[in-house]
Structures are given as structure tokens and as C-alpha cells.
Design brief:
single chain, 449 residues, mainly alpha, 16 helices, membrane, cell membrane, antibiotic resistance, transmembrane
Length: 449
């Protein structure tokens, strides 16, 4: 019996939830720390233009993470459903196929992205001042895309196999090493933004090495077998992972959309101010992903075991946690905006004022984000993907793009900062009004509701 089976079959839902949540939440926030640390060192060690340049390149992370999430979450969900149904052969097969797919796809993306780095940087919103820095950063990230993809996908499987503490340990090592390497490469070796990118890659590789410890555990259910390419398995991996792919791809749309809007309304000052908020947003955003990542293996396992009461209890506990986290983040934004901006070494008064104005408005969106991620994950984890895709498309694409176009026409830069809260808020209100009763009160069938 695997670690996940022992835990989820014998423990209360509350105890299992926090055993998954705490290390996962810490791990996700440390993952975001890898990106935020780049910003802190770049802003303080190189300057505001370089900081804006790295922010332009952030969608590269979204491309790599979105693809590895598609395969990792899709494979991990199918793995947990198979484990809950005691189909260990299928679980091993799914794990093997998923890791092979990550290797193939990341190799192709890495090569194509490295070659096309300059036109991609321009597409992502680079201008004459930021282009060279952005290209330097992007080429290094693309060069090591396979390592980044492996680390992201394997951490998901390790978490789903009942070892969220080990997944957290890998991210702790990665974050600490990233701090050391950023200081060394930027301040000592004077490698500028290329040093920040290389530090992130090396730190991620160190985390990947930590994950390999899981394969030596006697209770590990993760075993590589000879790949058997079954069409149903590949289709299910892609289907179950597609909402996460869209969600992370939506992060790229979010960054590009905000870069374009602020460049139009506020120029380089706007880009630099957004770079500060976006680094902070990465930290908060991944915390909400952490809640979804925590409940995914639980709901998928309970679904495979046909334990529907435990699914409902998991959703209720996650809702409370998401609301508490959102209120906490909003309070930090309202009362600590000045301190948050100072962390990034912003000295230009215009940039500082614009960022301080934007933080409290932008952070309002965190009141709603937890609800949206919980229900997206719920539908996905029970193999009912269409509602999950719908939630992702509306909050991350349709409503966000519409808000970025319309709100600035009425409110100027204030409207830009309020675009994300508007998209998240409207989606959450719809879910609470029309979907929650069906999720909490109805018993699940094979397809859902």
C-alpha cells in the first residue's frame, strides 16, 4: 500500500487536508520566491529598467510551467484516480508516459524558444530599453527548459504519491540556493540579468535532485516501467491537465495584457510599477494554486474510491482556507504597500507612487481567487473537465481582457489595476450563486452532477 493510500484511507479529511496543504503552501510560495528573488536582486543590483525587462520575460516561465502542468497535473490526477481504484499497473504506466512526454515537449519548446527569443520578447511587450536584457534572460530559461519541466512535473507526482513534505523540501533547497546564487552572480560576477536566470536554473536543478530521494522509499508508488502508449491514457492526461494549462497560459496573457495596457497609458514608468506588483502577485497567486494542488490528490483519490462525503468535506475546508488567505493578502496590500515597494529598490518617485497606488486595488482580487481555484480543481479532479475549462477561460481570458480594454477608458490606470479583481470577482460570484449548491449538496456520479 502506497503512502497516499495509507493516509487517505485511514485519516480524517481535515487532518489529511492540512498534511497536504501546509507543505504544499510553503512549497508553492517558495517556488514563487525563486522568481521574486530574481526581481529583488535585479532591482537592487542592476536597476529599474532591468527589473522591467525580467518582468517582460516572465511569460517564458508561464509557457514552460503551463505545459509541464498540463502533463503533470493531468498525469497526477489520473495517477491518483488509478491509485484510489487500486489499479497500480495503470498508475505506473501513467507516471512513465507523463515523464516521457514532458521530456519530448520541453526539448522542442526549449529549442524553438531559444531561436525565436527576440521576436518573442517583442511580442511580450519589450521596448528598445528592455529588449536586450529580456532576450538574455529568456534564452537561458529556454536552454534549460527540460530541467524546469522535469522539476515541475515530478513534484506533482511526488505530492500525489503521499510525500508533500519531500516536494516542499526540494523547493526549500531551491529557494535558498537561488538567493545565494543571485547574490553571487549579480553582485560578485556582475552577470546582470543572465546571472539571475542562471541562478534560477541551477537552483531548480538542485530541487530536482532532492525529489529523486522519493524513488528510494519502500512505500513509493512511483515506478518507471516500459512505456505503453495507450491512446486513452494520453487523451485523459491531456484532458485532465488542460484546465491547468489554460490557467498558467492565462498568466502569460495577464502579464502581456498588463504590460501592453500600462505601456500605453504610463510608458516605462507603468512597466516598472507593474513589475513590482507582478512579482508580488506571483507569490500570492501560487499560494492559491497551492490550495488547489493540495485538494487535487485528495479529491481524485476519493473519487476513485467513490467516497463522495469526503469530497464534500474537502471542498468546504478548502473554501474557508481560501477566504482566510485572501483576506490576509488584502490586509497586507492595504497596510503595507510602501514596505512592499521598498523591497525591490525602487527609487524613482513616479514608479513608487504608481506601484503604491496599484497594490491595494490589485490585491482586492485575492478575496475571490481562492474560490475560483477550488472549484476549477474540484471539477478537474473528478474527471468533469468542461466546467473547469469554462472557469479558467472566463476568469483568465475573456473577462480579464475585456476589463483591461474597458476599465482604463473610464478610470485610467486605476482601471488597469482593477481589471484582475473585476474578472476574479465576477467569476466567483457566478460560482457561489449557481455552482456551489450542486457541488456541496449533490452526490457525484460517474460524470458529475
Amino acid at each position: 500500500m502506497s503512502i497516499a493510500e495509507q493516509r487517505l484511507l485511514t485519516q480524517s479529511v481535515t487532518k489529511s487536508f492540512f498534511q497536504y496543504l501546509l507543505p504544499t503552501l510553503i512549497g508553492m510560495m517558495l517556488m514563487s520566491a525563486n522568481i521574486v528573488i530574481d526581481g529583488i536582486f535585479v532591482g537592487n543590483g542592476i536597476g529599474s529598467v532591468a527589473l522591467a525587462s525580467v518582468n517582460v520575460a516572465v511569460p517564458v516561465w508561464s509557457v514552460i510551467i503551463s505545459i509541464s502542468l498540463l502533463i503533470g497535473i493531468g498525469g497526477g490526477t489520473l495517477y491518483s484516480i488509478a491509485t484510489g481504484g487500486r489499479d497500480t499497473d495503470r498508475a505506473k504506466r501513467v507516471f512513465t508516459i507523463a515523464m516521457v512526454l514532458v521530456t519530448i515537449v520541453m526539448t522542442v519548446i526549449g529549442l524553438a524558444g531559444y531561436i525565436a527569443a527576440e521576436p518573442l520578447a517583442l511580442l511580450f511587450g519589450a521596448n528598445a530599453e528592455t529588449l536586450s536584457y529580456a532576450v538574455d534572460y529568456m534564452q537561458i530559461i529556454f536552454m534549460w527548459a527540460v530541467i524546469l519541466g522535469w522539476e515541475n512535473a515530478l513534484s506533482i507526482f511526488i505530492r500525489n504519491d503521499g510525500s508533500p513534505q519531500l516536494a516542499m523540501a526540494g523547493l526549500v533547497v531551491s529557494a535558498l540556493l537561488n538567493i545565494i546564487l543571485n547574490y553571487w552572480m549579480i553582485f560578485i560576477l556582475d552577470m546582470e540579468v543572465a546571472g539571475a536566470a542562471l541562478a534560477s536554473v541551477i537552483a531548480t536543478a538542485a530541487g530536482l535532485l532532492i525529489y529523486t530521494i522519493h524513488f528510494f522509499k519502500k512505500e513509493s508508488g512511483l515506478t518507471f516501467v516500459r512505456p505503453v502508449w495507450k491512446k486513452d491514457d494520453i487523451q485523459m492526461i491531456n484532458k485532465l491537465g488542460f484546465p491547468n494549462f489554460l490557467s498558467e497560459a492565462g498568466t502569460g496573457v495577464f502579464v502581456i495584457g498588463y504590460n501592453i495596457a500600462l505601456s500605453y497609458y504610463a510608458g516605462t514608468t507603468g512597466l516598472a510599477a507593474f513589475s513590482v506588483i507582478n512579482y508580488l502577485h506571483t507569490f500570492m497567486f501560487l499560494a492559491f494554486i497551492g490550495i488547489g494542488t493540495s485538494i487535487q490528490p485528495m479529491i481524485s483519490f476519493y473519487y476513485g474510491a467513490k467516497n463522495y462525503e469526503s469530497i464534500r468535506n474537502t471542498v468546504r475546508i478548502a473554501e474557508i482556507t481560501g477566504i482566510v488567505l485572501g483576506v490576509s493578502f488584502l490586509a497586507i496590500g492595504w497596510f503595507g504597500a510602501g514596505g512592499l515597494v521598498s523591497i525591490f529598490g525602487v527609487e524613482t518617485e513616479a514608479i513608487r507612487e504608481l506601484a503604491m497606488k496599484g497594490i491595494p486595488l490589485f490585491f482586492t482580487g485575492y478575496l475571490f481567487m481562492g474560490i475560483n481555484f477550488i472549484y476549477m480543481t474540484y471539477y478537474q479532479s473528478t474527471a468533469y473537465v468542461r466546467p473547469s475549462i469554462g472557469i479558467t477561460l472566463f476568469r483568465g481570458f475573456i473577462l480579464l481582457i475585456a476589463a483591461l480594454i474597458l476599465l482604463p477608458l473610464w478610470l485610467g490606470t486605476t482601471g488597469i489595476w482593477l481589471a484582475l479583481p473585476a474578472a476574479e470577482g465576477l467569476t466567483a460570484i457566478f460560482l457561489v450563486t449557481f455552482a456551489r449548491r450542486g457541488v456541496v449538496n449533490r452526490q457525484l456520479g460517474v460524470r458529475g452532477y
